[in-house]
Amino acid sequence: MKAIPIGRLLRADTSGCVMGCRVSQTGTPAFGEMVLIPLSDGSRIYGLVYDIHIDDDGLVRQLVSANVSEEVIEDNRQNRNVPIEISLVFIGWEDASGRVSHTRVPRPPLTLDEIFPCVEEDILRFTGTGRPGYLRSLLRNQEIPAADLVTAHLRQVFSVAHHPDREGWRDRFLAEVVALLKDDYPQLMDVLTAVSAAME
Amino acid sequence: MTPADLHPMLTPSDPENRPIGYVVGGGLKANLFVRLTLPAQEVQEGGFVVLESGDWQFYGLVTDLQLGALDPRYAEMQNAARLAQPAARLLAGQTLYTNLEVMPALMLERGPEPGSPEYESWSREHQDENAPRPLPIKTVPAHHAVARLASAGDVAEIFGNPESKGFFVIGNTREQDHPVCINLDKFVQRSSGIFGATGTGKSFLTRIILAGLIQHNAASVLVLDMHNEYGFDDTSSDTGQSVPGLKGKFAERVRVVGLGRATTIRNHTPDLHLEIYESDIQPEDIELLTRELNLKETTSTTLEALVHSFGHERWYTEFKHMANGAMITDDEGKKVPAAGSVAYWANQEGVNVAAAEGLHNKLRNIFNCPYIVERDPADKTSINSLNDIIYTLKNSKHVVLSFGKFEKDLDYLLVSNLLTRKIREAWEKMTNEFRSSGKNEPRPLVIAVEEAHKILNREMASQTTFSTIAREMRKYYVTLLIIDQRPSQIYDEVMSQLGTRVSGWLGDESDIAAVLSGLAGRDALRGMLARLQPKEEVLLLGWGVPMPILVRSRRYDDKFWKELKGKGAHLDADQSMKELGY
To answer: Which of B298, B313, B364, B379 has the fewest Cβ atoms nearer than 10 Å?
Structure first.
C-alpha cells in the first residue's frame, strides 16, 4: 500500500462513497482505478473510481475570463476550497484476517477516512479469489457507466506486471460478465464491445 | 474455456466417462433434453448415452441434436467479427448451445456410492436374484443429471458381455467403438428381420448373424438362398473380393442343398440335390401361386375335386398326365372329350371344364419343373430329399438351400413354402410329443428367408406357412429370419411379430414406418433410420435387444472369422458333443 493517501471521504453508504482530494493532474486516481479504504477495525474496503467531478467556485468563474498567469492558476488549484469529488463504487472488502469478500460492505467508512490507491499486490489479492463476484455490484448498478468501468478495470488488472494467470483471470472475468448480462442483450453487447476495444 | 469448466459437476475425472452435458428438461413422452457441453460434432444421432441421477442410471439414445440460443439475436449476429476473440468465444459458450434429445429406454439402480456406509447394506440386499437389472424406463433423471457417452462397461451391462456364452458381437457403438452384442439364445426365440435398401450390406450382415448362430449352435438354421450367396464362396459385387460361404467355414455342420438333379452351385456340387416328389405337392402349394400363375377363383374347387378323385398323393401326377383338349369322335359322330383328357375327367366329376382346362394350362409351368419328379414305387433306394433336409435340421446341422438356376419367383415360392410346410408339420409333431410324452425337446430352428416380401406380402401371407410360423411357431421352436429390402411390402401382422429387427438405411417412408411398427419411440427413431450411413451402420430394435441402438456393423472379413472361430475354440463338452451330432 502506498503510504500517501489520495483523499479523504466526504460521504458514504454501503454501496459506495464520494471522496475529496486536491486538484492535481498526477495524484488524482483515474477512472476505473481500484482504491482501498482501511477501517479502524483492521478491515479494508475496496472500491472502483467511477466518476470524477470538479466543481467550480466564484473565484474560478472570475479567473476563467481574466488574463491570469501560470502562478495564479497553480495557486488556485493548490489552495482552492472546493475539492475534486471522486465517486467510488464498493466492490468488496477484506476482514482483519485478510479474507477477501466480493459482497456488499458490512458498514460504510467514516467521513474523512483516508483513501489509498491499490498497488499490484492489493489488486492481485482482491481479484485472485476465484470467480469475480464483485462484477454483480457494477453491472446491476444503473448509476454507473458499466461498460466503460468494466473495461477500465479489466485494463488495470490485465496490466499488472506479475500476474500469475492473466488469461485465466480474463476468461473468468468475461465469463462472469456474460453470465450476469446474458439476459440483457443490449447491455452485454455494450460491455463486450467496450472490452474488446480495450483488448485489441 | 468450455461450459464444462464453468460447471463443477461436469469436470471430467475419468476420461472414459467424460461428461458430455447435463439434463435440462424433457420427459418420458417428449424425450429428455441434455445441454451439450462439448462441440456438437463429438456426439452424433444414435449415440448411446448414460444419465447419472442419484442412485440410478438411465440409458438412452440420442435421437436429435438441436441448435439453440438464449436470445435469437446471439445466433443471428456474427459476434465473432465484432468482438475480441476471447470475448466472442466466451459469449458463444454461454449463449449458444446444442441440446441433445435423448430417448430414455432403460434405468438401472446402481445404489449408493461404493465405499459409503449405505453401500454395504444396499449391496447385501441386492445380491443374486435381487441384483439390479436394467428396467424399462419408468421415471426421469433429475435436472442437471450428468450425461456421458456409454462406456464399454455400460454397453456390456445392457447388451451383454462379448465373452459370455451366447452373446454375439454384431457391431460396435459409433462414437466409442464398444462392442454391442445380441443374445443369440433370445434371438432365436422369436422371428426376426434384417432390413435395408439395396446395397446397404444386408447380405453381409445376414452372413455374420448366420455364422454367429451356427457357431453358437443354439438352433439349426435353414437358409432359403434364392441367389446362391450363402453356401459357397461368392464374389462381392461391390469390391470384387472373395466372400467366404458358410459351407467353406463350417464344412461339417453345414449342408448345401441344390434344387434339382445335377445342379451345381457356383461350380460346386452340393451335398444333396433336392427333388420334390409329385406326391408331396398339395393343393395349398398351388393356391399360393395364385398371383404368379394368374389363377382364377375356380382353382380351389378344381383342386378339391382332383384330390377327391385321386387322393392327396396322386392328384398332381394324375392331373399332369391328363391330356388337355384331346377329343375323339363318338359313335354318333360328335366330338367328345377323349378318355384321359382334362375335360373327360371334369365332366365325370361335375367340374367346370373350362376351369379345369385353364388350370391345367396354367400349371404347365410347374409340370415342366425338372426338380419335381414322380417317385418310382419300385425303387426302394430312393430317398425323399425333403425328409433328408428335415432330418439334417433335426440333428443339429444347418442347411443352405440354393436354388441354382431356378431363380424364378415361381420356383422360390413353391419350393420354400412346400419345404416350410413339411418342417412345420415335423416340428409340431416333435413339440407335441415333447409336451405330451416327455420325448426330446425339439431343436430350435431358424428359417432365413430372402426376398421375404414375395412370400409374406399382404396377399400371400395368409396362404403361406411362413406367416403361420411368424405368428405361432415360436411355441413350436421354429422362427423366421426375414431378409428384405421392402419391409413395407410385408404383411403388418407378420412385421408386428418380429422380435429383433436389424435395419440398415431405408429411404422410403413406408419402409421406415414398417420397420418401426409396434415399437415405442418410433417417431424419434424414424429420422435416425433415414440418416444411417448407406453402409455398415444399422439400427438394432425390438424385443430381442434391451433398447434400440445404432451400431457400426462388423465387417465380414478374415478378422471376423478369426474372432468367431477363436471364440468357438473354447467349447464345453456338451457343445463339442453337439458339434459331432450327438
So the answer is: B379
Give the H or E element holding residue A125.
helix A120-127
Distance CA B337, CA B351 (A): 14
Q: Which residues of B287-322 are buried (b: 16+ CB within 10 A; e: fewer)?
A: bbbbebbebbeebeebbebbbeeeeeeebbbebbeb
Tens-digit pLDDT profile for residues B226-249: 888 899 888 776 677 788 899 989
Name the region of B473 (left: φ>0; alpha: ψ -120 to 50; beta: rest).
alpha
More confident: B468 or B16: B468
- pLDDT (0 to 100) of residue B113: 79
Chain B residue numbers with beta carbons less than 8 Å from the beta carbon of A192 are 79, 83, 87, 91
Residue B379: Cβ-neighbour burial (10 angstroms; 0-12, 13-18, 19+):
exposed
Separation in Å, CA of B70 to nearest CA in chain A: 8
- What's phi and psi for B483, nearest 5 deg? -120, 120
CA distance B36 to B321: 75
**Measured between alpha carbons, how far is B176 from B17 in angstroms, rounded to an integer?**
11
Q: Which residues of A touch B84 (CB under 8 A)?
A: 195-196, 199-200
Using the Cβ of A192 and the Cβ atoms of chain B, whether some distance falls under 8 Å is answered with: yes
Nearest Cα to Cα of residue B429 among B496, B476, B486, B485? B476
Amino acid symbol at B578: K
Nearest Cα residue in chain B from A186: B73
Looking from the CA of B485 toward its CB, the CA atoms found within 13 Å total 8
Sign (positive/negative) of CA torsion B494, B427, B401, B209? positive
**pLDDT tens per residue, range A136-166:** 989 988 889 999 999 999 999 988 888 888 8
Phi, then psi, of B97 in degrees rounded to 5:
-150, 170
B201 touches B504 (CB < 8 A): yes
Q: Is B281 within 8 Å of B386 (Cβ atoms)?
A: no
Q: So what's the pLDDT on residue B10?
A: 46
Alpha helices, DSSP H, located in chain A? 58-65, 70-79, 120-127, 135-139, 146-158, 166-181, 185-199
| Start-end of H helices in B96-198 | 117-125, 152-159, 184-187
Contact at 8 Å (CB) between B193 and B495? Answer: yes
What three-state secondary structure class fits B138?
coil
| Binding-face residues of B in 44-83 toward A, CB within 8 A | 70-71, 73-74, 79, 82-83
Half-sphere exposure of A68 (CA within 13 A, CB side): 15
Instruction: Tell me which residue of B2, B96, B488, B327 sits closest to A182, measured CA to CA.
Output: B96
CB atoms within 10 A of CB B190: 18
Task: Read off the C-alpha cell for B486.
Answer: 421392402
pLDDT of residue A2: 46
Question: Measured between CB atoms, which of A185, A192, A196 is closest to B71?
Answer: A185
The answer to whether residues B356 and B343 touch, using CB atoms and an 8 Å cutoff, is yes
Beta bridge pairs of residue B329? B335
Q: Which of B167, B198, B90 is nearest to B450 (CA)?
A: B198
Collapsed DSSP state (helix, strand, coil) of residue B109: strand
Residues B202, B208, B211, CA angle at the centre, nearest 5°? 135
DSSP string, B147-193: EEE--HHHHHHHH--TTSTTEEEEEEETTT--EEEEEHHHHTTS-EE
By C-alpha distance, the chain B residue nearest A179 is: B94
Which has the higher per-residue pLDDT, B519 or B281?
Answer: B281
3 state DSSP class of B389: helix
Distance CA B520, CA B516 (A): 8
Asked if the model's pLDDT at residue A36 lies above 90, the reply is: yes
Chain B residue whose CA is closest to A168: B1
